[in-house]
Here is the input.
Amino acid sequence: EERGAGQWRLTGEKCWISNAPEADFYTVFARTAPRAGARGVTAFLVPADRPGLSGRALEMISPHPIGALDFDAVPVTADDVLGEVDRGFAVAMGTLNLFRPSVGAFAVGMAQAALDATVAHTCQRQAFNGRLMDLQAVSHQVAEMALRTEAARLMVYAAASAYDEGAPDVPRRSAMAKLLATETAQYVVDTAVQLHGARALEHGHLLEHLYREVRAPRIYEGASEVQRGIIAKELYAAQDQEAR
Here is the structure.
């Protein structure tokens, strides 16, 4: 709701916000031009102590705090605008292009931690008259875990480099990196739990911790299905341009 030139009051609520309610500042996207679609959204940087803004924590399976925010006529001005008024959609897309590879990066870290633990465990664990690593069924699974982890790592590096260079295919590369890395982490952690057996299910075990927290990254910053949609859209858009 706009009160005057360069002044608005934000009213509404938003759920599943990363680092809420602990954050000191929030990036808020609000509609400032009715019936203008994506062109009528403005991005604001809102301090957490702004009058009318409150939040609450949500108990969720996630590697970081997630909460909900309530806006009760929170005052914002032109000084709080990120980018340009009514052009916040571009800010949102640019932010996602950066955050998606970063999500991929910590997903690769989860996969690497699970892989390292599995290599150590299968080297030491005695079973079936030998070490687990001597069983081809086990060693081949470990090799597959390493292969997928390295592929995801390289995809994240490629997306980060494209972002730094301002390459035109950043949206596609970012979506690919986020998708591959998070799906890979889920596979690697799950396989690691299977190869460790019951011990990995004990509270406090590294893999019990990773197994709980690896699931959320496949949903936020755009679920895996959203990433596939972005990749396909970018491919067809490139094809249309070539056809012209």
Notes: The first strand starts at residue 2 and ends at 4. DSSP finds five helices and seven strands in the chain. The longest helix spans residues 88-124. Residues 38 and 89 are 6 Å apart (CA to CA).
